């Protein structure tokens, strides 16, 4: 075994050269955030822009991990390489990311054509919304052409993250309409492809009708000319998985041809920039305002002498 | 029926006077964010500081809503008034908040001593993390002395929001250790009281041992002198619910006596202020940087000529 370099520069070169341990270490640096992550972004940005990203999300228990694993098997049978980023709010107590029920993916663990990473981002100040694009940019820069991003479809940030893919697949189950465990409105908004997984269970046809009706109500055809197709699967057996990937490719062709892909990527980049700006400004405001004044205004807010909006405006000087 | 006023000022006065429709309208303004929410915060801040907040969170299906409803019944039997804010990422397709499986709470719907509100915050630019403290501040200012905040314990923001209560109750189920559907590390971090709900199911004793072991590992006794107690319940029958509330009160007395409550509230206020500052600075940076330069730098990021961190620093001038 070759030794893995320690500094980001050498790690980056090694990862570009195909070193999996080097890529793994860089992803750990991204997870941690700070100067390391920033340096990686600086190197990765000019080399990126060639990866296609597919988000997979859905309610807890919908079978996202199983479907992701089945999609990976399908892609491998076609000879395609793929990277998987599993966003894991269930980060461990013990340090180091656990794969949890993603254990199913372990069938791919020894396959050099697959790179799977479970990412917890509790150390990253920007949280999921900044760590995810940084990790995707890194995969892209070191040569991955296809990146799957899997998130749980419950939290506000988690659904947004899944929606920031080139194509987003939303996984539901029969009976989904009765459940309030998922961020349904958020999921409806980000879906480019719907998958009804576990379609062998009762209520599949009703769920399909419900989804069609919601798509009718949302007027999805008019807007951009793409109506999310609804694909049926039993991910545990692999049934329907090829159809899922066909639907993803159909959306990809539509997005490329219509200019939607370009618009979406531009919007995403601007959105990320806006978040980074906010974070840098926060640091800068502290310098500008002076620690003493900052502390005084904070104390005023703590004591409820003023509300946060008024204090914020005083801190950054829009009131002066 | 008296007419409900339309402007925020009159609404606020009416809500302070006990008008429930006025309070409901103010909460809708908070949900929507913007100038309306800011004006409400400005009025509410000086009148607030008297409410005790209790967060309830846990994995989807853990029985949070049932437990919340049972706690409300217990409080009512003691003659206490209570407000419930149910944070609902499952916001509806149809406008207006739905209560979903919170339908159980409808037994309290006609009780004047209870105010229940399900809040979706998709319109609020600050999302949950800013809308929730604004809503709590409003409840506080109009005279509520006890506010329960219920969130699903999966997303990053949702767990943080629950953790920003004076006392946070984390609801788990037997077998919790095997599930990766919840943000476990996040939940461990915010818990002041653990509830094992559905304790009549298999594996309850194992779950208790697991929790105790995790608390041992985390060294929870040393830090602040409070070790989260573990309470067993069957929320559907009400068994153990009085114990939950006793544990909450024990934590409250500890937090008040040790100064922890004051520290926590100060930290929370500073944290909220930091978020508001970031949002205001974002607006201001656009003014300072000039739209043309801003657009140019955004285009550079979109085209991957620079990374977002470098562009951000140019926008806000730390590189000059």
Largest interface: chains, residues each: A-B, 77 and 76 residues
Residue-averaged pLDDT of chain A, rounded?
84
Number of domains of chain A: 2
Distance between the amino and carboxyl termini of chain A: 63 Å
CATH class of the largest domain in chain A: Alpha Beta
Shape of chain A: globular
Radius of gyration of chain A: 22 Å
Oligomer: homodimer
| Class per helix and strand makeup of chain A | alpha/beta
The succession of helices and strands of chain A, N to C, reads HHHEHEEHEHEHEHEHHHH
Percentage of residues in helical conformation of chain A: 40-55%
CATH topology of the largest domain in chain A: Rossmann fold
**Overall CATH architecture of the largest domain in chain A:** 3-Layer(aba) Sandwich
For the largest beta sheet of chain A, what order do the strands appear in spatially?
3-2-4-1-5-6-7
Beta-strand percent range of chain A: 5-15%
Largest sheet of chain A: 7 strands, parallel
**Helical segment count of chain A:** 12
Number of DSSP strand runs of chain A: 7
Description:
Chain A has 320 residues and is of the alpha/beta class. The first copy, chain A, has 2 domains: 44-260, P-loop containing nucleotide triphosphate hydrolases (Rossmann fold), CATH 3.40.50.300; 274-316, no CATH class. Helix content of chain A is 50%, strand content 13%. Chain A has helices at residues 8-16, 20-32, 34-44, 64-77, 127-141, 156-163, 184-190, 204-217, 241-258, 260-289, 291-302, 308-316; strands at residues 52-58, 82-87, 114-119, 146-152, 167-172, 193-197, 230-233. A 7-stranded parallel β-sheet of chain A has the order 3-2-4-1-5-6-7, sandwiched between helices. In chain A, helix 2 packs antiparallel against helix 5. Chains A and B meet through helix 3, helix 5, helix 6, helix 7 and helix 10 of A and helix 3, helix 6, helix 7, helix 8 and helix 10 of B.
